[in-house]
Amino acid sequence: MTQRPQMMADRKDAPEGDAGVATKTRPKTQRPPLYKVLLLNDDYTPMEFVVHILERFFGMNHAQAFEIMLTVHKKGLAVVGVFSFEVAETKVAQVMDFARRHQHPLQCTMEKE
Ligand code: TYC
């Protein structure tokens, strides 16, 4: 069998500064929390504008974007993506800014999954 230098961390006889806690067991990895980005319905924003937003900021094709837009229109809201905190925050800001610049009342929010 191939020999390789053994680091202290690998050695079973290494001094245990960690007092024997979780050295052999599965290390606890922490996944960052995810955030849902939600689009809300209103009575004034044009359907094609919402479709454009979904294509532009959420990478959807026209058919997907149209379908999600219709879901929001009928159900009142829909999840349009799930992202890390920073990416979700950026998407919400992009959508809100774009809607405001076009004087549409479209609302976009995020919530922890
Ligand atoms: N309800 C809007 C209309 O009838 C369309 C719309 C869809 C608005 C989705 C916002 O997030 C929205 N023009």
Automatic annotation (TrEMBL):
MF-aspect GO terms: peptidase activity
Keywords: Hydrolase, Protease
InterPro entries from the UniProt entry: ClpS, ClpS_core, Ribosomal_bL12_C/ClpS-like
Positions of region (Disordered): 1-28
Gene3D superfamilies according to UniProt: 3.30.1390.10
Family assignment from sequence similarity: Belongs to the ClpS family.
HAMAP family membership: ClpS (MF_00302)
Known function: Involved in the modulation of the specificity of the ClpAP-mediated ATP-dependent protein degradation.
Matching NCBIfam families: PRK00033.1-2 (NF000669), PRK00033.1-5 (NF000672)
Protein known as: ATP-dependent Clp protease adapter protein ClpS
Organism listed in the record: Phaeovulum veldkampii DSM 11550
Name of the gene: clpS
